[in-house]
Amino acid sequence: MSFRTKALLSLLLLVATSAWAASPWREGRHYHQGEIVRYQGQTYEARQGHKAERGANWNPEAAASLWAPLERRNNSRFGWQEGKYYSKGQIVNYQGRSYRVRQGHQSERGANWNPAAAPSLWEALDGNVNWR
């Protein structure tokens, strides 16, 4: 088996096993910025540190100011598109991976600024894996 094949298999194993690493969201718990949780089958990242106060309805689905969804692979409106403006912090999907915009920019047509080719513009998230 070639080195490249072994490396690819190792990466796939890491990504597959990391899906179980996200803990379920719980009311009453303190969350740190960047922490990854699962809620009702969806993976979310905390946008800022906060305590999910009991009864406050600060779950990831209800509190978009506190949580960013990381997996929207079946929803094309979150897919990367050439010729579109992207704001810092925005999350998109490209070729089955999730990415966060590092700096606001216009993805110029023909410039090859897609998330896989322009790491200075995009941070790879890969669902539950936070690559920071």
From TrEMBL:
Pfam families attached to this UniProt entry: CBM_5_12
Keyword Ribonucleoprotein: no
GO molecular function, one term: hydrolase activity, hydrolyzing O-glycosyl compounds
Keyword terms of this UniProt record: Hydrolase, Signal
Signal peptide: 1-21
UniProt xrefs under CDD domains: ChiA1_BD
UniProt xrefs under SUPFAM superfamilies: Carbohydrate binding domain (SSF51055)
Keyword Signal among UniProt keywords: yes
GO-annotated cellular components: extracellular region
Chitin-binding type-3 domain location: 22-70, 79-125
Gene3D superfamilies noted in UniProt: Carbohydrate-binding module superfamily 5/12
GO-annotated biological processes: carbohydrate metabolic process
Stated name of the protein: Chitin-binding type-3 domain-containing protein
Organism lineage: Bacteria, Pseudomonadati, Pseudomonadota, Betaproteobacteria, Neisseriales
